[in-house]
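S.,

Sequence below, as promised.
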Amino acid sequence: MSGEGQKTVRLTIPEEEYMRSGHVACQGCGAALAMRYALKALGKRTIVSIPACCWAVIPGVWPSRNLAVPLLNTAFETTGASIAGIRAGLDAKGIKDVTVMGWAGDGGTADIGIQALSGMLERRDNVLYVMYDNEAYMNTGIQRSSSTPEGAWTTTTPVGKLHHWEATPKKNMMEIVIAHEPAYAATASIGYPEDMIRKFQKARDIIGPRFIQVFAPCPTGWKMDPGKAVEIAKMAVTSHVFPLYEYENGVYKISMKPKKTPVREYMRLQGRFRHLPDDFLDEVERKVDIAWERLLRKEEFSRELAAMEEGGGGGGG
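The prediction came back faster than expected:
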């Protein structure tokens, strides 16, 4: 609005909705909110391929679905191959203005689907692969995945006298993808929708293989208050547990450098970490700080290297 006595309001999130009401996600589902933001960014000229995961159930039972864009359900391990095939079919028909997006969970990406993802990246397929990260196999009963953080309770890493919680660190999927030299890779969080939408819009307009890892809390699997999903998603970023950054043309760019908040404040809101002793939490904090410092150095070094390359700093005889 404009005029005397009126204030102009600038909308930062697109108004259009391509995710209808009526989905069957749990209360506070981060994955549901992630899809809503992603489609707002990409628009109606989008085709989505979804393997076995929570989002294979969330749209509803055939013939109903809550997405206003074409949807293909595929096998657990085949997301990378599926979207590559869709892209090839569109190219054969001369259709270039459609974004092909694979939408898979962390289990279907970091574990079962990593072979097809790697092949997609290696072939340089012109598609967008999204890993919505809720840090376990939530749809099938909260089993651990290789994206489950160290210390977390799951049904396959239970806590008790005869059992121990998850003992291995979370797999760094961004670095695995970056090793393939993608056209674009980024992390995003439902706690920061403007940043997320900007990255999806950027990815939409880039040619080549793109990858986005979206932090999407699962209240059911994380044993948390459904009303705190967005708050916890923000805390993951401010505690440096889940940094927001991009990788493009060999350069790292950190999207946010927030004032550090304690990791234990983030973890204590989730029942899956309730059993952890103070010394374990201290060690988690130390590891998070080391990883953050490593990311800062990668950003600095990659920028310096890119500047040298642009300046022709190779030397001569």
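The chain has one domain: 30-310.

Coffee later?
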